[in-house]
Amino acid sequence: MMRIFVTVFISLGLATAQAEISVIDDTGATVRLTAPARRIVSLAPHVTESLFAAGAGAVIVGTVEHSDYPEAALKLPRVGGYSRLDLEAVAALRPDLVIAWQSGNANAHLERLRALGLPIYLSQPGRIEDIARSLENFGRLAGTETVARQAAQSFRARHAALQQRYANRAPVRVFYQVWRQPLTTIGGKQIISDAIRLCGGINVFGDLTALAPIVTAEAVLATNPEAIIASGMGEERPEWLDDWKRWTQLTAVTRSNLFFIPPALIQRHTPRLLDGTEKLCAHLDTARTHRPAGGAR
To answer: Which long-range contacts (CB under 8 A, 24 or more apart) does 110-114 make?
Structure first.
């Protein structure tokens, strides 16, 4: 009997060890679950979208405002906005995993959720290839590894094809405008800077360490970008992009290189970022064709 008991105990112990899931999030922290998550709360639109891409849409029980892709995400319960969470609503959903946005969610909110004993995975992809790793991690956490692995492989193949296609393009100096007031751009560690590099562009504010630094119009004029790319808030080209036309000394203005990319395609850390990157690369190719004879930059 003792031998049987010991055998059963060891078997149960091995089963428990094998069932534990362990992944490293984008901050380097280890997130552990005793079993695949069955009730996930997503605290950012890009997290929601990537969870669906990883095959985990069925286990999302709540998300934040502006989680609008895919269409099924529109039906999910809301727990406020990513920057103004309703913590009581989060707790009421009884999640077994919360996936948060490091630079978008308030740290004080996350600490209160941790105090409730909720495991939290922090998402903050800094480079395009990090999106594939996020898909794989989400698949592991939700028990949808097969779908997630396929999605990640497809993403990596498409990313590699874009890298090869634009590897030898002539450089284009780019100012990327997130918003008008305050005048907001992207720093070198923001994932859009990685997309600019892939397309052969140079972020004129790439030396700034903040993800979304505020700059002045005078600073933009001093850098004299060859192309200005804006996103705005919706699917329509923002009217304020044309405000730059009053600065006739700007190369981007004299060569008609004022471009727009829908923010959902370029400002979310999801597989659709490659859609936005393709548009970005096409815009920079257009800027190259606008150079005067002789290829002056």
So the answer is: 112/87, 113/87
First to last CA, the chain: 84
Residue 13 has pLDDT above 50, yes or no: no
Q: How far apart are CA 132 and CA 296, in angstroms?
A: 38
pLDDT digits (tens, 9 = 90+) for 112-155: 999 999 999 999 999 999 999 999 999 999 999 999 999 999 99
DSSP assignment, residue 243?
Answer: G
- Res 157 pLDDT > 60: yes
What domains sit in the chain, N to C, each tagged with a CATH number?
18-156 (3.40.50.1980), 169-289 (3.40.50.1980)
Q: How far is CA 155 from CA 31, 128, 140, in A?
A: 24, 10, 17
Read off the pTM: 0.90
pLDDT value at position 1? 39
Q: How does strand 172-177 pair with strand 227-230?
A: parallel
Q: Which residue has tokens 């590897």?
A: 167
- Which residues lie below 8 Å from residue 267, measured CB to CB, with a gap of 6+? 178, 192, 231, 276
- Size (the chain), residues: 297
